[in-house]
Design a protein that fits this description.
Rossmann fold, 7-stranded mixed beta sheet, two-stranded antiparallel sheet
Length: 186
Amino acid sequence: MLDAISKVPRHMFMDSGFIDHAYQDKAFPISSGQTISQPFTVAFQTQLLQIKEGDKILEIGTGSGYQAAVLCEMGAKLYTIERIKELYRKTSSFLPSISYNPKKMIYGDGFKGYLDEAPYDGIIVTAGAPVVPENLLLQLKINGKMVIPLGESVQKMLRYKKISTNEYDIEDFGDFQFVPMLKDKI
């Protein structure tokens, strides 16, 4: 996983005004009031997902595409959803231009997930959700995992493992801060 992070050039996903700071372990603004997560957070969430090459992964919050590129580098079959049209347009042309090709990029509401390709081996949410999106839990395979920052101003990084149709093992991995995940705002 660290190999995948080191192969993805973070500076390419950032505004040119922040290039000199690209490899600091800090979040930076990208556009539309959104941020690119700090490298530690990208690595941490990715590690919690415990993916294997060929796993079908749903990413909620494409943003600049940095997390998506890391997941593609790891060999995930990636479906990624972005709710901000400006970011969706920019990232859907940018990622292929640098040879990262998710299976599908979707402009839509991440709270709804992407039922067309469910179930998923893993779901990664890259924005702070005020509540657990039930649709996402339903779109996990049995033994699939969802990594999600849950809460308002400070979130708990949670990992849900689907044990049966409606039973989950939930683990808490501490406090984080993300931009908010917004519902029905497209």
